[in-house]
């Protein structure tokens, strides 16, 4: 399974579309096998969910995310986990243990992108 984390450095980004990069983790059922960092190719409506889906991502983890992106991920059968914070790798490890669950944090105003993970 491939798990992507929207990140700022090694931390989970507060807003999916405005992250610096995506940390892509190749995993088996219980552990991380490999980690790749892919720079954010740019935020534009509808692009990033398809970009990650085309890379074979099964799960996306972020602090917050807009409803349009969530809808596209859902259409592509990619699980969305929002409301995450802290270290990206730790978030993935928590997800693999069944301890990380989505809070449903949906961003509605892009001018407050830094606050999205706090809903």
Element layout with pairings:
Layout: E1 2-8, E2 11-12, E3 21-27, E4 32-39, H1 47-54, E5 59-62, E6 65-66, H2 67-75, E7 79-82, H3 88-96, E8 106-107
Parallel strand pairs: 1-5, 5-7, 6-8
Antiparallel strand pairs: 1-2, 1-3, 3-4
Helix pairs in contact: 1-2
Strand residues, percent:
25-35%
The SSE string, one letter per element, is EEEEHEEHEHE
Q: What class would the helix/strand composition place it in?
A: alpha/beta
Cα-atom radius of gyration: 13 Å
Output the CATH topology. Nucleotidyltransferase, domain 5
- The geometry reads as globular
Could you give me the name of the CATH homologous superfamily? Dinitrogenase iron-molybdenum cofactor biosynthesis domain
**Count of DSSP helices?**
3
Question: Can you characterise this structure?
Answer:
There is one protein chain. With 119 residues, this protein is an alpha/beta fold. It contains three helices and eight strands, in the order E-E-E-E-H-E-E-H-E-H-E. The protein has helices at residues 47-54, 67-75, 88-96, and strands at 2-8, 11-12, 21-27, 32-39, 59-62, 65-66, 79-82, 106-107. The chain is globular and about 35 Å long. The protein starts with a strand and ends in a 12-residue tail after the last strand. The model is unreliable at 110-119 (pLDDT under 50). It comes from Anaerotignum lactatifermentans. InterPro entries: Di-Nase_FeMo-co_biosynth (IPR003731), DiNase_FeMo-co_biosyn_sf (IPR036105). Residues 9-96 form the Dinitrogenase iron-molybdenum cofactor biosynthesis domain.
């Amino acid at each position: 399974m491939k798990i992507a984390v929207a990140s700022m450095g090694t931390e989970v980004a507060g807003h999916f579309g405005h992250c610096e990069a995506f940390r892509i983790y190749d995993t088996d059922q219980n552990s991380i096998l490999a980690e790749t960092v892919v720079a954010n190719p740019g935020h534009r409506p509808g692009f990033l969910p398809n970009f990650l889906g085309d890379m074979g991502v099964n799960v996306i983890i972020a602090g917050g995310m807009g409803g349009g992106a969530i809808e596209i991920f859902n259409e592509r059968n990619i699980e969305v986990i929002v409301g995450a914070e802290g270290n990206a790798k730790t978030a993935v490890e928590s997800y693999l243990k069944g301890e990380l669950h989505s809070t449903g944090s949906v961003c509605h105003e892009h001018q407050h992108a830094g606050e999205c993970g706090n809903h």
